[in-house]
Amino acid sequence: MKLADIDKIFDDNAGMRVVAPLEVEESGVDPIGLRQINLDLMDNVAPGINNVTQHVRYYTFVAWAAWKASTQAAHEGVDDPQVIADLMERYEALYAWSHLLDGRPFRGATPLRQTIARTPVGEAFRFEGEVWDKYKRTRTNIMAPTEYGPSIKALRYLSLDEAIVTNQVMPAVVNFEVRVQEVLSPHLLAVAPPSVKASEIEEFAKELPVEAPSDVERAVFKLMFHEIGSDELATPAMRRRKGTIDYLIGVLKEMGPSTLDEIRKRFVANRLPVGIVGDVEHATQSAIMLAYLQARQLQRLATEAMLLWTERVLTEESEGGAPRPLSTEELVSRADAAAANLDDTYRGSETVGDYFASVVSMGEGSGWPASAAHAGTAVVDLVASLREAQQKDPTRIPGLAVRGFAVVKAVNDALSLADLPQASQRVVDGRPDRLPMSLMSTRLEAISGRPRASMWAEIIEGWVIGQHVHWSAVRGGDGNQRLRIALEEAGWMRVRKRATGTFVPTADRLYTMLALGASCGLIQRTDDGRFALNRPFAGQTSRPSAEAHQTVQMSDGLG
């Protein structure tokens, strides 16, 4: 509604009205705008996956559903794209419903529970009409941008238009189709909307559970996920992903069964394992970028934790029950005192440069970035401590944050000497509005001769509040309230009723890369939740077996 329309309403209907209180929705995702560089780093080292992708069978299923819907419609003389799309949605609904019946619901199963799954026991659900339409409107399907969709396309299981299954994937599709014929009646997959009882699809999930791909599916996925990166026609993303997986396999070979944090500590060292198999050049680049990623995770979390600390300090001060504004000088003094109370090295330093030099000297034995995996300067440990401090004792945040910034600077300065392709270097140093690590290091160098407390003016006013206000304004066009801190005449004020919740590192895709590797047999997951190398591994490729190419004897005559 335009302002002129509102004016006309009041002109036509004079008088006062009681209106509801103005409600402004608060929004707070990425309040300092640092997240995108983390995501860029992840896209560089692990393209084609996200933080949801864990199971190989989802890839097979969607490719099968696209192929089956197209061939089924063609067999029945139908070429309407909407009919084919509806068939794909029905196949996925049948698969999801069967898993729900088996007690293993898919992510986002609420729309299914509110529609199809409400069918009374013993009665049939018909896949057309109002309830079916409601399910399709409210569900989040496997191909959604937040689910497997981008990865299924990136790994070339489907073409970009979602209609064509690539040739390399067809062995898995054929293998899956043979098994589907054993558990589902043909009428459930035909174009005509069927009426389906739960008893007719219970075996779908029992015989083809999403967690248990066949050997053919595993072989196909290994090809598309890893081995295809060595093909002479491989895309840059395929080569980068293979380089990262080769590096990861080499790390696991060196370390043995390892936890996620143990692997992250090894990543930050930027050291290529001895005898690595695969393209050494791409593995080397992945090692450098993964080391950068660990440091960036710490930089982002330390900066966001300082936002939380600033809000909490502004909340604590009050006059007559109302929050009292605080000047930058007061915030700086408090941060300096808190850091000095926690960190002996900080307390003993006179200048900004003295402190950072002292932290760098802690790594004299191993050098940098290797020292970022050792006690006292370990990136992973500092990340864990910052998470805990936000929840239990925010007074510890400045001391942990400043140590984190010193470690990030030391890692960045060491890695800046590495030789990276221009495209990768842009990922690290680009986006100056996102405070890349190189810019942070430059700003700290510029004030190295000043008293140590002066760095807090840079951190609080520039990196925390300045970045936050900038990104709140940039994203403020949708009517949501993003601003948390504002400048009043007497100083800084918190403008929200509730303080910020705790921050966590950006999910780094390491778990999903390992989970996919374990699902397809590249690596294994131990009983205690660690990840280890499958033995033996000598870099051999495993192509889909002859079983994958068997002829499909379909009951409805399709071939």
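Above is the first protein from milestone M3; the second protein from the same milestone is given next.
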Amino acid sequence: MRAGAGWALAMVALLPGQALLSERALAQAQQTDQELKALIPDAALADPAAWARDTPAAHESEPDIAGLTDFAADLPPLPDLPQISILWPDSADLAPVEPLSPDPDIGAAEDAVKQANSALNQAVPPTGRDGAQIANAVVEHVGAQVLLAFPPDATLPEREAIVARFAGLSSLKALDKADDSLAQLSRRAREDNDLIQQVLRLYGYYDSEVVQSLVGLGDQIGQAKATDANAKSSDGEKVVVRFDIQPGPRYQLASIALGDIAQSGDAAALRTSFALAVGDPINSDRIVEERGHLVEALGHRGFAFAKVGEPALQIDHDQRNGALSLPVTTGGTYRFGAVTSLLPAYLNSRHLQRIARFRPGQMYDKLLLDDFRKAVLATGLVSSVNVTTRPVAEPVAGQPGTVAVDVALTKAPRRTIAGLIGFSSGEGVRLEASWENRNFFPPGGALKVRGVAGSREQLAGVTFRRSNFLARDQVLTADFYAQTKRTDAYDARTVSFLAGIEKQTTLIFQKPWVYSGGVEILATSELAATAAPGSPRTTYFIGALPLRMGYDGSNDLLDPERGFRVALRVSPEVSVQSGTKSTYAKVQFDASGYLPAGKRLVLAARTRLGTIQGTALDNIAPSRRFYAGGGASVRGFGYQAVGPKDVNGDPIGGRSLSEFSLEARVQTGLMGGAVSIVPFVDAGTVGTSSAPTLSGLRIGAGVGLRYKTTFGPIRFDLGTPLNRRQGDSRIGVYISLGQAF
């Protein structure tokens, strides 16, 4: 029993070792068997029993183990071990040891590399396979990871267009900054291969061949350095995929079918508008473009209900040509009928007909209909407009039918509350607020109430405006206001009434030619700054006929970047003060030009010349004279600070004016390009004679900031006089809305 217990304890010590057989021992089992086999003599293999009897151990006598047995019998019994059950080794159920399986990530990476190698022709050396790459090819670089190679002698006038279109859609180019694996690169290369084929077919190359290969990875593919599946060469550079393109012959148009155009009364002109002919190369872009031209021609020539379907192109690969079919149903010609408002209490039919550039009986023209829709939106009275046509008389015997024009309107908010704040040296702070109802007197009669509160000006006024008065974009205006204004030149208290007609330009329809004319009646009580202390105020009663004609050839109404503008103002006036009657004419000429000098630079220049003819300076109210200086004149100088002054340094105004400005508007790229820096130089003078002069010219210079908004740029200018006189400020600050000119 004790001996048995001893064996059991020995097994307890051995079992953990057996259970913890390492994978390394299993892996070395085969090697160990071979080593043991080498130690066995040949005699033992030939006759194992004879060899065992002849060993030295076989000739020794058996040891006496009786003493050991008596010693074991004298040992105390082993205590029982509660709750411990140890199985005998031959009955232990040990879990079988399973061999390790390959790492799935390693396997997947190996498969990805193999597939990528095959798909990308990565076995090709950097110089390419025989015949795979085009010799002396014209190579276009598309991004950092794609090359397009074209034959040097191929006639391919669309090569630049093909490269540009491919570059805009290429997966390899779009993701060339990513750390791609070879599998990802392979997938994108397949997509781009298909893309090239599609682009070539757009231009008529239906038999093109494209061979793709790698540049930059070479013979390392499939080796240990490439098993990480990264698409990089040994020097760390990205692998470049090259597509060698053989465009093949270009297919041509064999036939063109344009529906029932041949049966229309204007077949020749309509066919000419579709500028594709049999024998022309197939070009899908041209087909789509000419379809649009045909649609425009049908709408322009009176076909109000013409229908043009989608083009169909049938390719014949044997003949290398295609048959183009464009389903067209002309539907006959029509003339315009009456315009009908579906919201007559808001904007009646008569008013809408005045806005339209077409009249009943005129041949239908879709361009005029589109223009009419935009003009109704430009009134600001509607948020949306839907213009539809319906036939009221069908074409008969070659005579045009008639279509009515129905206008469905959705009202826009009519009331607007606005505010404006500005500051400039010499004028101080100026706050303006207004309330307006744009349809207070339907249709299109606006009422506006406004007020100004400033450090040197206060004003209250009311304005009536009738849009589209007697003609489209012609505005009737009546304005009445009361104002007090105090400047360095005069102190005036004025009541004025002005009525006139103006040909208006708008943001939607910026017109080249504009004009205005009207009548102005005002009474003003003024005290000139040159008057002696205690002098009485002088009251002037003035009647004027202000006229203006202007041409606008610039590209933008609020922030022009190119073009030019010219304007001429003439105002014959009659002035009565203290029984003295004076007549004179006030004339002012303005011109400005805008020249882009790069993507982010616009040079702008302006000049202004003015004259008052017909009377002496003393007979002209101080508020009607010419002055210069300030944010809209010569920056760097204060408001009215340029020109003749009295002994006290107060401006007296003049009968002539000369002003010049030059500035560079430089976009900085800050805040999405909204911020610009504007260095500028201004010059100007005022003369007491009627002829404009350069005598006493004052020059100011500085720099400004512009912040571009949807309603025009916000302007901040800082200027300084370059030939400052005594009493002139060293710095002028100007903040307002809009460019200086």
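Note on the second protein: Residues 182-202 form the longest helix (21 residues).
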